[in-house]
Amino acid sequence: MKVLVIEDDRSTADYVTGGLKEEGHDPDHAASGPIGLELACTRDYDAMVIDRMLPGIDGLSIVRALRSSGRDTPVIFLTSVSGLDDRVEGLEAGADDYLVKPFAFSELMARLNALARRSPMRKEETVLTVGDLEMNLIARTVKREGREIDLQPREFRLLEYMMRNRGRVLTRTMLLERVWDFHFDPKTNVVETHVSRLRGKVDRPYATEMIKTIRGAGYVLNVPS
Amino acid sequence: MFRPEPFRSTSFRVALLYTVFFLGSVLAILGITYVAASSEMAGILRSAVSDDMRILRQAFHAGGEGALLERMDDLTESASEDRFFMMRQSSDGAAIAGNMPPDLWRDGWTDEKLSQNTFDGSEDLKRAASRNSDGEVLLLGLGERIGPFDVMIGRNSHVLDETQEIILSAMLWGALVTTLLALVGGFIVSVGPTRRVDEIAATTRRIVEGRLDLRLPVSKRRDELDRLATDINTMLARIETLLSSLKQVSADIAHDLRTPLARLRQKLEVVRRQPRSPDEYETAIDAAIEESDAAIETFNALLRIAQIEAGTRKSRFRRLDLANVVRKTCDIYGEVAADEEHELIWKHLEPGEIEGDEELLTQAVANLLENAIRHVPAPGRIEVAVSIQNERIRLDIADDGPGVSENERERIFERLYRLDRSRTTPGSGLGLSLVAAIVELHSGTVEALDNAPGLRIRIELPTAHAALSTQNYETV
């Protein structure tokens, strides 16, 4: 995966590019807004990580410039912790995701993986299938091995998000944001409780397990091997 | 710095401005009087002269020379130092009758000044001149040829001049008195407000010097200065709160982050002291990451509270149903509570619209639910209700746990305040302060009540209608 990292803070930049290299990806680094914008416009990337505060041109302007020139490369916005409103501003400017500094590299990696797969844009699907698990988005029904599974609306949403991202690690924070619309860190086992209930319906009655816990990282839904 | 002087005050300047306007109007009124009175009096004089002349003319036309001479004699009898008559022979200019020299005859209207040497022995002219300081006479005259005679009728127009002088001097005195009165009045009027502005300025200087607890004096008059002072006092109160909150945050950060950092340092030092196996290193590193994550989390929570308290989030407010927010959050936590063997009940949720930030309200409700779930010993009963009380929407979250003693109930909303018995459970001690900050942002109140047994947290928020009207007040 070719990733452009536009970040002026040396240590954060090293942290991100170093991690990407370790994971076998190919990062380019730009330490200022103008250089970053030039690279973003002249080379092809699978994803970009852009800091909000940059010398020269700020992150918001870069994303706006990219979007208005028709480039839909996935962008993850990095915001400082003090900017509560930065998230909304970033998403409104055209970023696909955001991450508050300081962050764990595994979190950034999981989000990059989830985003990079998105392009080119697929047509709207009406049925999601992973192995013998089938979800009908119109009828809002779920079947495994042809047998219907009765899910609560929020369990349905959780499973849908996991099926759309089959094979990708989804972190606790990603699930909280996408499924529950929580933009804070709960002190109770909200995610664990709901994943466990979902497992009880989707996995437990069957021979193989599709939802797996990746320790210290998150959850992944995959075809049982 | 500004040195107070009555002559430089705004009210004095206003008084001066009024003086100028007032003076202008006094002068305008007198000026109009002057013009109107002079022309009116001149008109009266002229019509008297032309009347006399008409009588003579008619007499001549009716009765010829004899009648004219007769009439002329009548007029001459009434001659005085104000009324002049004269008739002469047109052919040689020889005087026939009158009290003024014959060579003064002019055809038509004349308005001329006669000096001493033209009097030619006329007693009436001399008398008229003697009343004037310059020894001259102003004559308004009409000369006409009637038959073989030159006739002239005149009036001493000095009386006109005199009236004009009287009006002019009235104007001068009027202007003088007006100016004087306005200046004195302006001074007196400006002394009051200036003294109050001085008081305000003195208080402001002391506030600048650091006495943030001082407030500007407000009188009972409710005038514009009082309104201004009241608004400034509100602003000062807000600034004081923000400043103390800032001080508090800095102190909290210093205090609360030193502890985990010190712990982290100790742990790392212990690992470093002697060589260990990779497994031991891994465990130590994981522990260090966990410890720093906790510190970062505390940091984030403090900053978030400070940011909410600063009030900038209000731009995100929109109309929403609080019952809806509570229901969604309870839906999520129902199962979490069930897993901990608690019963979460949210049957009574009365719909009520408020102006608010859904994300923050969700977090507030979530924090309260999590607090109850974590601190109530299982099996517990947690009841959530939304009801409307007058213009306010009340959210109650009640549990049947151990509760909080009365003297601690106020303090649980303070930053980093933790009950002794909850020191061992994880958490930053910021959850309830965050709730308090969010409620404050929504212009609401939060209190901890005794649920006998247990704790009841009660939040009251203004309804959308009430919130809107106070908001309007704020933007006025």
Automatic annotation (TrEMBL), chain A:
GO terms for molecular function: phosphorelay response regulator activity; transcription cis-regulatory region binding. InterPro entries: CheY-like_superfamily, OmpR/PhoB-type_DNA-bd, Sig_transdc_resp-reg_receiver, WalR-like, WH-like_DNA-bd_sf. SMART domains: REC, Trans_reg_C. Gene3D superfamilies: 3.40.50.2300, 6.10.250.690, Winged helix-like DNA-binding domain superfamily/Winged helix DNA-binding domain. It comes from the Bacteria. Keywords: DNA-binding, Phosphoprotein, Transcription, Transcription regulation, Two-component regulatory system. The keyword rRNA-binding does not apply. GO terms for biological process: regulation of DNA-templated transcription. The keyword DNA-binding applies. Residues 2-116 form the Response regulatory domain. GO terms for cellular component: cytosol; protein-DNA complex. This is Two-component system, OmpR family, response regulator. The lineage of its organism: Bacteria, Pseudomonadati, Pseudomonadota, Alphaproteobacteria, Hyphomicrobiales.
TrEMBL record, chain B:
Its EC number is 2.7.13.3. It is found in: Membrane. SMART domains: HAMP, HATPase_c, HisKA. The keyword Methyltransferase does not apply. The keyword Phosphoprotein applies. Residues 194-244 form the HAMP domain. Its main location: membrane. It catalyses: ATP + protein L-histidine = ADP + protein N-phospho-L-histidine. One of its GO terms (molecular function) is phosphorelay sensor kinase activity. The chain crosses the membrane at residues 15-37, 166-189. CDD domains: HAMP (cd06225), HATPase (cd00075), HisKA (cd00082). It is an enzyme of class 2 (transferase). Keywords: Kinase, Membrane, Phosphoprotein, Transferase, Transmembrane, Transmembrane helix, Two-component regulatory system. GO terms for cellular component: plasma membrane. Residues 252-465 form the Histidine kinase domain. PANTHER family: HISTIDINE KINASE, SENSOR HISTIDINE KINASE YKOH. This is histidine kinase.
